[in-house]
Amino acid sequence: MKVKLLRVVAISMSMLFATTAIAEIKVGFIGSLSSDTGLSTLRGAEIAIDELNAKGGVLGQQIKLVTADTRQDVTEGVKAYEYLAETEEVDFIISGSIDDVSLGWLPRMQEYQIPTLDTWTSYIGIIDMLVEDYDSMKPYFMNIASDEALATLYIDFGKDVLVDKMGWKSTVILQEDTAFGGAIHGLISQAMAPVAGIDVVETIVYDVATVDFAPLYSRAVASGADFIYLISSVNSQVVSSQYVKLQVPMGMTGVNVAPMGQDYWEDTGGMGGGMSTLTPIPAVGMKLDPASQAFVDTYQAKYSSRPIIPHFNGFNAYHGLKQAMAAAEEAGGFNNTTWVSAMEKQDLILELDGELWLRYAFWGNDEVEPRTGRKYPHNLRFDITEPFDDGAPSMVVIQWYEDGTNAVVYPEKYANGEFTLPSWVKK
Fold it and tell me: Which CATH architecture has domain 9-147+289-361?
């Protein structure tokens, strides 16, 4: 009898532990665990999960975060997604992957049908995949404005500032050899240049492992163009600091990931003045709404290592993960079309001084954005027409000055500084 009782107790305890193990929502992070980009997303997700768990979790269950390191490598990214899907059996995936890596694991997302939110990748080709094959792609959401939306507003910057204010009419494009670089190059050369009235006189493509940019800058100067348009997302500190060190005698702007982080000045050894870049929002140098500022305060109290302030994708992860969990509450779980429908309806409006400042919502499958006349299903709902009263702009332009400060210089509603040339460049 005693042995039988012990067996019953043992079986009961096993059932209790099994129930406890099941009673959790598993969120998988996929991205680089050693980059500012990846860590921004990871930490944004960690803070959101801490806050949700403190309030009771989701569907009566606590949320557990597991990670998979892509090392910013396509092959490792595929393995990371497979690990989260097959070994960890996660309910939801939040990504801080760069474009090439996301493109690598997307077929796995289509296969496993795990709800996935991309917080950094902005490749318009992924949104096109949703347009072309919504049924297999519908678990995927991107809460950063896609490349085309970024470039559309950048056309306005080209006309309003580069042409009308600076008098620039020609550019040489200095572009890294990545999917990101190719996508941005296409949009700039085919859209911004002709619409804004800027002539692309030459395109210089470089390997991301390049460490000596002197010959490339000499070639840019020899092109006779008015300014350099830089497209750089990998090892961007090197190309940036060498621009300053070499005192390249022409202005440079573009899409440069390194200046998007507050660690940029230290990374370049103080040789970062004059650099400006298009950046998704929230951005370095930008005023923050109270909710986003509270997130930054919590972040800085929790983490002492870089990035000292999360990149824009850290904000995207923080707000986006909460929206994904709210959708799960409404849908009763993740792996069904009901979650997709609930996620499509998520709409977070953040105000500053009574004005709409940030908006986290998504374009629907059948909606058409009026300015471009095209669809952006499951892309962040951006506003690319002033006065930006229906949503936040797809991007802002920030600039670092030679004294180590930075500011938003475009568009006017968000600007708190002026676009200027570094001291060694004569207009």
Answer: 3-Layer(aba) Sandwich (3.40)
